[in-house]
Amino acid sequence: MRQQKLNYQALTLWNVPDEKRYFYKQMGGLYSHMFTEDVTNNVAPFRSYSSRNKKTFEVIASGISLELELKTLFHLPYSNSSSYEPLSDVIFDFIRGVSGFLLGSGGKCFFEIVDATLKDDDMTKSLFVLRPIHGKVIKFGRTYYQVIPKEMREGNKKSIAVPQSKIWILEISRELGTIKDIVALSDNLDKLENASLLGSNIAMSQKEYYGFEFNKFHRNIDEKILQVTNKWGWDMRMALNNKYGLEYFMFYRMLRFSYSLAVLRTDILSKMNILLRRLGYDVTLSLSGIPTSNDYLNAIKKMEERQLSFKEASDLIHYSL
């Protein structure tokens, strides 16, 4: 059996904490956590085959065979996938991972493009590895700097310089909102979480707040959450625990959220293809068997015209189950 060893040395530090990590609050943050989890868990399939629908989902790489290069480049350091798994699984895992990065960083994240070599018994191959840059990143001229927190500094070194040629910047699709919108969404969900906790505390202290209608208050919170996430169409897991939503509205929101996820994964894949061309790889990645944003737009239109059954909507929403 051939022994392979991947060697690379990143410039940036791996364990730098973020000053602000949106959608991931240490205290509370239930709604933020639910939203992020629903995005990352549903933006790409976890498996390439649906036993219910008898369908397959895969990533197709056109052009010359570069499977090793692609799996090395898009394999995140903490990923659940491995280089021995199919290319589709690695790419799906990457899309899920960077979706979480985008939300956690407020709609914009940075990666270091690291030169790597793969050695085995009789071959040495040059490759690239992507490393997420944690913490604060600033730009000065044609150079980016990862700011080192005081508690991590050695000597007088306050930052790590990375040339622009070794930086990949990923921003969330403008169709889903600006960076300002993503930050505002995180802040609003946290404020609503705090309000919900306050309502719970009041309900437990009825002697002081006699007559407080907790159910009505909680319903108002739910309605506000649906308002602030309207651009994404997040359903707040209505299919599981929201007794106030009509069935039509429930499926309508779920289709709208599925549309947003289709926009997100397509945009990420498009920017991955731009990166591949930048690195000199003659290959284009495309998705096969996965509903597109137009599929969901057409379904929404049919539903509005009463030409789409709830079962058809459910099959499209849960295509990978």
Task: Walk me through what this model shows.
The protein is of the alpha+beta class and 321 residues long. The chain has helices at residues 30-42, 67-73, 87-104, 179-203, 214-228, 238-241, 247-278, 293-304, 310-317; strands at residues 5-8, 49-50, 55-56, 58-61, 108-119, 124-132, 137-140, 143-147, 159-163, 167-171, 285-288. Helix 1 runs antiparallel to helix 3 and helix 4 runs antiparallel to helix 5 (214-228).
Helices, strands, pairings?
Layout: E1 5-8, H1 30-42, E2 49-50, E3 55-56, E4 58-61, H2 67-73, H3 87-104, E5 108-119, E6 124-132, E7 137-140, E8 143-147, E9 159-163, E10 167-171, H4 179-203, H5 214-228, H6 238-241, H7 247-278, E11 285-288, H8 293-304, H9 310-317
Antiparallel strand pairs: 1-5, 2-3, 4-11, 5-6, 5-10, 7-8, 8-9
Spell out the key features of this protein.
321 residues; alpha+beta; three-stranded antiparallel sheet; 42% helix
Mean pLDDT: 88
Order of SSEs: EHEEEHHEEEEEEHHHHEHH
* Number of helical regions: 9
Number of strands: 11
Q: State the end-to-end distance.
A: 37 Å
From the spread of the alpha carbons, the general shape counts as globular
The amount of beta strand, in percent, is: 15-25%
> Which structural class best describes the helix and strand composition?
alpha+beta
Largest sheet: 4 strands, antiparallel
Over the alpha carbons, how many angstroms does the gyration radius reach?
A: 22 Å
Taking pLDDT < 50 over at least 5 consecutive residues as the criterion, the unreliable ranges are: none
Approximate helicity band: 40-55%
